[in-house]
Amino acid sequence: MTKTILHQAETRGDADHGWLHSRHTFSFANYYDPQRVQFGMLRVLNDDIVAPGEGFGTHPHDNMEIISIPLEGDLEHKDSMGNISLIRHGDVQVMSAGTGITHSEYNKNGDVPVKFLQIWVFPNKKNVTPRYDQITLNIADRHNKLQQILSPNPDDAGVWIYQNAWFHLGKFDKGMSADYHIKAKGNGVYAFILSGEVTIDNQHLNSRDGFGIWDTDMIIIKADSDAEFLLMEVPMK
């Protein structure tokens, strides 16, 4: 029997620090809801807006796969592995924190905010050597189709992580649809609508809604308006 969970946009945790406005789909920092700690191995989905010239000072992570997807603006990244980079819309950044890293993230622009998703996935391997990767995608490859941006396989499209997970982005015109087949038994899919309106397996979703679905082999996605969305397939256990 297919199981689902709906997290409407307005029910998310809301943290406004002035320099940072963050909406938390799952429990994070001062936002805690025992019903919303994680979806399978997906632990954090933060929808962040960082004010011009502001950012996150140096802070540590360990044993977590951390994925950043910029939506607007430019984010400067520095870490203890010696990486200094700029990530912008069309890029995907991944860090395997493993035995431990520190990093900072700043909005380099003095005039426009930066908007990005920060996603944490529990790894299937602990205490790995920390690593960093960043790629630039061809945004045209998600027009009316699903563009793979992450997988467990270093030789596959997108970045890779230490987990049996696959992420896809889609930018669909109104009326377009696609089938998504679950890639690994025991996995579920968490969909996050970036813009527009989408129906997934008869559930209508609006911008910034989240929808989890599991115990199924396939989902059907239909754009009810021009829409952009992220699909995150992760193990449920």
Estimate the strand proportion: over 45%
How many helical stretches?
0
Write down how many β-strands occur, each being a DSSP E stretch of 2 or more residues. 22
According to CATH, the fold-level topology of the largest domain is Jelly Rolls
Shape: globular
The gyration radius over C-alpha positions equals: 17 Å
Portion of residues within helices:
under 10%
Please explain how this structure is put together.
This protein folds into two domains: 12-136, Jelly Rolls, CATH 2.60.120; 139-235, Jelly Rolls. The protein is built from no helices and 22 strands. The chain has a seven-stranded mixed beta sheet with strand order 1-20-17-22-15-13-14, with no helix packed on it. The protein has a seven-stranded antiparallel beta sheet with strand order 2-3-4-11-6-9-12, with no helix packed on it. Strands 5-10-7-8 form a four-stranded antiparallel beta sheet, with no helix packed on it. Helices cover 0% and strands 55% of the residues. Strand 18 and strand 19 (203-205) form a beta hairpin. The mean pLDDT is 97. The chain is mostly beta strands and 237 residues long. The radius of gyration is 17 Å and the shape is globular.
Characteristic key phrases:
237 residues; mainly beta; Jelly Rolls; 2 domains; 22 strands; globular
Question: Can you lay out the helices and strands and say which pair or pack?
Answer:
Blueprint: E1 3-7, E2 13-16, E3 20-24, E4 42-50, E5 55-61, E6 65-72, E7 74-79, E8 84-88, E9 91-96, E10 101-107, E11 114-121, E12 131-136, E13 146-151, E14 159-160, E15 166-172, E16 177-181, E17 187-195, E18 198-200, E19 203-205, E20 210-214, E21 218-223, E22 227-235
Parallel strand pairs: 13-14
Antiparallel strand pairs: 1-20, 2-3, 3-4, 4-11, 5-10, 6-9, 6-11, 7-8, 7-10, 9-12, 13-15, 15-22, 16-21, 17-20, 17-22, 18-19, 18-21
